[in-house]
Amino acid sequence: MGRTILGGVTSSLAIPLPDPSSVERLADTVLPTRHGTFRMTAYRDDVGLEHVVLSVGITDESAPGHHIGRAPLVRVHSECLTGDALGSRRCDCGEQLQRALHLIMQDGYGALVYVGGHEGRGIGLVEKLRAYELQDTGVDTVDANLRLGHDADQRTYGQTAAMLKDLGIRVVRLLSCNPAKQEALTELGVRVVSRQSLIVPRRPENAAYLRTKRERMGHDPESVDEWQALLHGGGVLTTGVLTERYADLVHPDGPKVIAQLGQSMDGFIASRTGDAVFVTGEEDREHLHRLRALVDAVVVGSATAAADDPQLTVRAVPGPHPTRVVLDPRGTLPGDSRLLTDATAPTLWIVGQGVEPVPAGDHVEVVAWHSEGPMDPAGVLSLLRERGLERVLVEGGGRLVTAFVEAGMVDRLYLTVAPVLIGDGVPGLRLAGTDRLADALRPPVVRRWQAGEDIVTELDLAATRTASRVMPV
Ligand SMILES: Nc1nc2c(ncn2[C@@H]2O[C@H](COP(=O)(O)OP(=O)(O)OP(=O)(O)O)[C@@H](O)[C@H]2O)c(=O)[nH]1
Ligand SMILES: [Zn+2]
């Protein structure tokens, strides 16, 4: 690549581009920054260009890509002296650089590849400034490059793939607004499991430049509603707190079975009379509704359905309602419960053999359990899968969540703890227990955040399954 044909004539200005594809690691040190301390690794490529990688959580010993089931967050940043070092407002590079470093440090697992030789989208600093001269006369960023005899974008990414490989990174969550970067990396054998746009505030001075990138270079639109992007399958994701929290759930390889419990500091989900209004606060309710919106089905036990009479629909945020599934081995769900009377969402009423269910509305499908045995979690999940209900939220109560966890069926558990001491009541999770604390389940924490007064902790139970410990059933 690199030669531009102008009017059928190869421009004499188009310089054959060096295309670095291998690198040598020459230094490995640390760099304290305003965002925290990064590992800093330096490289020189086969055409003599120098590059650095700032990383966190990446070691030569670790096996990236398997770190608590997540790919590292990776930014491939093109060198831009004016934006990165001089604070230029003609482009968005400087702010993207700082934002990316912040996000990577906050995530605790990722890398920023700072690519040398990419200045001016590969045309070099002086040529970029000549392009700026043209842009000062009203030419846009693409045409300015072309008039100077360059391609609109002359960057290549062989050096980037080589550095990632050297650091053991084969799978990435990419931070970029540029789909072409994702394609280039994919072609070079880097698996991009998701791409998050890195949109920074527009300035009057760079508004036209950013518009050209979107209109002529295929960059992501400026405002993507983060929650809507997640609801629509998470192909391209924005950067923000919701994406950070929920992107895993919409990813094709993401967790399929999730569970949630909201409990007191002493581990109860309701008082001893069954009063559960409300253990956790408003923000945890919103989180729960987001989980419901992102799954296909929500499962509850009949005792909880009878006690709390929940609607299990999505009301706190916009989003589709899941299919509501109630496991009712003895047919004890009251006929006037909202799952049976409220037709806002479909209900799948799974009853034990021999149970004669009361008549219910058209939104209710009654399914008789296939055997006389118990409704085992694996069997329930395969019944749901047969109906196309892949992503499942096990919502309660404590016994049902415990059964699914003990059967090793839950990939992620969201446990919200509220600053309340109930003293005695309906317990939350109650695993079989171990004699030695060393044998207790210590799932990796994927995320933890404060929701109002409460703390939500997201635990990676899938990671504990692969450990040698056999889950008691
Ligand atoms: N030729 C040229 N290069 C520019 C101009 N403005 C910024 N650049 C260079 O563009 C490179 C950054 O590319 P961008 O198109 O801004 O963004 P991107 O890297 O493709 O996509 P993101 O990953 O979303 O940042 C840097 O190397 C800048 O030096 C310009 O007007 N002309
Ligand atoms: Zn720039």
From TrEMBL:
Binds 1 zinc ion per subunit. InterPro entries: DHFR-like_dom_sf (IPR024072), GTP_cyclohydro_II (IPR032677), RibA (IPR000926), RibA-like_sf (IPR036144), RibDG_C (IPR002734). GTP binds at R75, V76, H77, S78, E79, Q96, E119, G120, R121, T141, S176, K181. Gene3D superfamilies: Dihydrofolate Reductase, subunit A, GTP cyclohydrolase II. Residues 25-195 form the GTP cyclohydrolase II domain. PANTHER family: 3,4-DIHYDROXY-2-BUTANONE 4-PHOSPHATE SYNTHASE, GTP CYCLOHYDROLASE II-RELATED. Catalyzes the conversion of GTP to 2,5-diamino-6-ribosylamino-4(3H)-pyrimidinone 5'-phosphate (DARP), formate and pyrophosphate. Belongs to the GTP cyclohydrolase II family. HAMAP family: RibA (MF_00179). This is GTP cyclohydrolase-2. It comes from Ornithinimicrobium pratense. The gene is ribA.
